[in-house]
What does this fold into?
Amino acid sequence: MNAKPSIVGAVVLAAALLMAPPLADSDQPTSGYSSARIISPPDGDGLRANSGNFEVRAQVEPDLRQGHHLRLLLDGDPQGAAQASSTFRLTGIERGEHQLRLQIVDDDGGLVFEGEPSTFHLLRHSRLHPQPATNP
It folds into this structure.
């Protein structure tokens, strides 16, 4: 059997792919969002919150559209219900390294856009080191 026809076919196919126009932006699925990021606490920073309670602030570009909500993930777990506000209040978080991620979801909870993860270190007073007594 002669292998030349299959080689010729492969060359023709490769040439056709090289000559094809690139996909237009409208041909590619897009959410319309360019970013969804955590702005506070800053990525890689330490955050002192001895109570384990603090606020997370997020930023979405462009602005959140009608019917879309923000969902905050802490270490992969959703924190409360999706909301329109870009400020989230977290309570009782343990000390150590944590990862935050912001998601944009539709009214049905379907994922529309997901931002890059942001890591922070929660600093809390250790129970192993008693706090100094206060002078009255």
In short: The two ends are 99 Å apart (CA to CA). DSSP finds one helix and nine strands in the chain.
